[in-house]
Amino acid sequence: MTALIIILCITLLIIVAVQIGKISELAQKIRGEEEVEQEANNRSAYAMLLFLVAFMVFCIVTALYYRNYMLGYGPHESASEHGGRIDSIFNITLVITGIVFVITHIALFWFAYKYRAKKGNKVLYIPHDNKLEVIWTIIPAVVMTILVVGGLDAWNDIMADVREDEDYMEIEATGYQFAWDIRYPGADGVLGARNYKLITATNPIGQDWEDVKNLDDIKPDEIVLPVGKKVRVRITSRDVLHNFYLPHFRVKMDAVPGMPTYFVFTPTKTTAEYRAELKNYPEYQVPALAEEPNGPKLWEAFNYELACAELCGSSHFSMRKIVRIVTQDEYDAWIKTQNSFYLTAIRNTADDPFSGKALPIEMEEIKNEVPSGTSMGTDTVPAESIPVDTLNQDQK
Amino acid sequence: MATLTKIDEEKLIQEQGYNDHFHDHHHGDKYKSNFITTYIFSMDHKIIAKQFLITGMFWAIIGAGMSIIFRLQLGFPEEDYSWLRYLLGKWIVLDEAGVGSLSQEFYYALVTMHGTILVFFVLTAGLSGTFSNLLIPLQVGARDMASPLLNMMSYWFFFMAGLVMFISLFVSTGPFSGGWTAYPPLSALPQASSGSGAGMTLWLVSLVLFVVSVLLGGINYVTTVLNLRTKGMSMWRMPLTIWAFLITAIIGILSFPVLVSGFLLLILDRSLGTSFYLSEIFIGGQALDHVGGSPVLYQHLFWFLGHPEVYIIILPAMGIVSEVLSVHARKPIFGYKAMVLSILAIAFLSFIVWAHHMFMSGVNPFISNFFVLFTLIIAVPSAVKVFNWIATLYGGNIRFNSPMLFAIGFVSMFISGGLTGIFLGNSTIDIQMHDTYFVVAHFHIVMGIAAFFGMFAGIYHWFPKMYSRFMNDTLGKIHFWGTLIGAYAIFWPMHYLGIAGVPRRYYSFDTFDTFRHFGTMNQFITVAAIVVFALQLLFVVNFFYSIWKGKKVTTQNPWGATTLEWTTPITPGHGNWPGNIPAVQRWAYDYGKDGREFISQIEPLAEGEKEH
Ligand code: HEM
Ligand SMILES: [Cu+2]
Ligand SMILES: [Cu+2]
Questions:
Q1: A168-345, superfamily in CATH?
Q2: Is the pLDDT of residue A118 over 90?
Q3: I need a labelling partner for B348 at 20 to 30 A (CA). Which of A94, A354, B384, B525 fits?
């Protein structure tokens, strides 16, 4: 019904406009072409000026209104180490392009207004001016050089992979239609081998259980990272392209099937710290859910989020995961509560190549007297503590 | 006034012009034998231009209409769209309460079709096809294109491409829905998305037909410009429109074949089980056999065309705008040589910047260094063009009619959108901006709206040449101001969305806390889009109304322009000039020289007069 009304209104307006058009043509005939044209020309010239002013005001007002969403400003400050550099290059570019934008628009619309046709006007015959043209070739060239140098300096630092001797942790994110699968390397600090042919309903990313490095790998359903620790995310995909996108951390990288990619970053603010900052802004003092006016405020409900930024099919827009940044102590406590995926879901099932054999990882547990009849110990024992050769011999 | 009278002009053409004996050969006028050969399978470049234009307009309405439907879903997700079932059938899904909404799959199909249709059918065929055909022979002084037959085929291949794409809208699994860039594996695997089945096959067939059309047209444009220029029309005397069409055609010939080879490998992957783009994929409960391919390879091939393609779209608009600004400011275009050189520089650079679309694709970040450098270098010739357009206005005697208004609007749009390119071209900033609404704002302003403005400027300006009537100028002004303000209202706010991190191609923003706070803005954008769409309908009404009822053109050269098309009769017949082809004596921009309002290109240099 509303649609019908809107369509009717639009039709009506078009008919009205056509009538206005016809009438103005008639008026032109009656009142003499030149006079009418001169008047219309002046009106358009003033409109140019008016538009210039209105447009500039619009730009400034909206920019101020949305300033709290600007990169590196207010609550939208980056939560990662490299993010600050992106934000500042963004802002430098914003200032430079902003100046160019304002100057060129003033020139464009002001000249249009100033040099509107008047009877008997003499135009300037200036086909070119080499000096001027050289100047306005060189200035942009110099500015671009500055931006390129600054940008690439940051780019090469940000995109550099970790060095062997560096202190970092590695996690893995695997995109699939339509969610993310997160894997931590467990106590050995190494992600186990994968083979996509091994993927089944119980083994969603095709971990190779013969590789003992897999036995302690953890698969939590959120990303939890200690603040201040460099993390290398190994990014993979199981089916189509996805993109590992952490807006608050200025992290973005495609997930490509058959070709693992990576992004290295260091979180600088815990979730709690970020919330505390948001608290200072009135727009975050409102209830998070309109239906629950007494529920948590927006700032309290804040969470870092992982999104997908590469079209991957019909539910592309819903690949959400929560990211929590915590202190090192909190992280240590959290990781203790996480169980090895192998021990939880694979151990002693048909998929378990060690089925029926005692694994050193479990012996350790028993020694530690973890009160657990099953293999689901709360303390995962590093698979590294298993002498790997022994294990392999076991198998043969 | 020292302008030439019609009689003088005739005399000049007969005395100085070139007799190619055209009218001796074509006595019986075999071209006009019946309705079908005159209007449908016509080989006359002027008719073919109109065919491109009107087909382009048809697609523009379809493509823009699609955007209105998906904008409704984005702006007002809560509304009931069950009334759209009459149009879209099963693609409107009803929830338990009977509230209809656009299905996710079809939302993406609409976005994909919108992009494909506008980029290829409207802004490539509808823009370059129309004006290259109309203006190249008329402005270089040729009877017709070098090969009228290829020219006709170019249109009909375009028509077939459109037909196949149109059919794809109605297949039961839906049209292709993986984005206009059609990245595999999504586009390669029917298991990945229902649109990647029959819809994608038709999409590929359609675009291959389309490329054939572009190549046939392009070869013709290049040949005509290089070989059929009239006596005296040296390259440096060509109007900037012709330079733009020539370079556009060359870029197209060099880059579209690469797209076809990219498509060919995709077709092989889809149908013969090859693994060019596919590797280690588990989908639909099954591990596929493909190993060793790379989806990134497709992206290289696609963007090797894709980036030049955006210049294929914008260069003709730039040419048109240069011409229109100069004619209606009654002043020579400022820095003609610099304008030509910057077109050449942009064309050359456009081939070595493609990977700026792939900074975040997993290519080696070291390689990106070069692409950042070349990409930001493109900003220099672009800036030169902008400064020259502005300088053209300086000291002019500006007539604000519809074509001029759109030309000025073009410059504004090109500035706004070009400047955001500088953010995106800087890979460091692109980490955050890639695949957000910032990119959507960038390319709609710099390419979408700017190219449309160039097209409108051209249509209003050359309508008298096409149909011997004027379009209504008052309606044109309403169209212009509404579209200028409306287009900024749609796309300016998208910058803020992008800066806030909101990704593009999201069916709904509600899943994420970070992205969901812009409901009002999204509503505003949708309303603005509906208004702008309605204004384009007004343009269409004006267009068709004016064909039959517009004010008649009574003089041969209504704008007082220097170029050759205005030396033809008001309604030029086949062969364009009734007698000899005029000879060219000077460049195309003698406006306001020696106190004269304009001097036609066919007027010989006076005693002691220097050419600009
Ligand atoms: C100053 C010059 C320009 C620069 C530096 C520039 C830079 C860029 C960059 C880096 C991107 C990729 C953004 C991303 O996906 O993250 C981009 C996207 C795009 N640009 Fe530009 N651009 C410029 C001018 C233009 C012009 C003149 C056009 C068209 C006429 C254009 C059309 C596009 C299109 C269509 C896309 C998006 C394609 C897509 O992903 O769907 N750009 N531009
Ligand atoms: Cu996705
Ligand atoms: Cu590009």
A1: Cupredoxins -  blue copper proteins (2.60.40.420)
A2: no
A3: A94
